[in-house]
Design brief:
The protein has two helices and three strands; from the N terminus they run ββααβ. With about 100 residues, the chain is α+β, with helices and mostly antiparallel strands.
């Protein structure tokens, strides 16, 4: 339980090693995100869980997403505009390519 003056912090770090068919060596991509809550109500956890869903629902209701049926958010039509809007809430992933 968070105390009155506590803030939470959410840290995500992903490491992807992948092989492109036209390259001999594998490639590396890291993606990271740090979010710090505002207070005990507007926590990093509540923002990173609730805001993406709220943004997607808003986009459905306003016709920005025109898909029908049930979809997981791995479609560019869903995740790109949601990630773009999350940046206005200071929630963004930083990506770095390496070898």
């Amino acid at each position: 339980v968070l105390e009155e003056n506590d803030k939470d912090m959410l840290v995500m770090w992903h490491k992807f090693i992948y092989q492109e068919s036209d390259k001999k060596k594998p490639s590396l991509l890291t993606s990271s995100m740090v979010s710090i809550g505002d207070d005990t109500v507007n926590t990093a956890m509540s923002k990173t869980v609730g805001l993406p869903l709220a943004i997607a629902v808003k986009m459905l209701l306003t016709g920005q997403i025109r898909l029908t049926g049930v979809h997981i958010p791995t479609l560019k039509e869903i995740y790109e505009p949601v990630l773009d809007e999350l940046e206005s809430y200071r929630i963004r992933f930083l990506e770095k390519e390496g070898t």
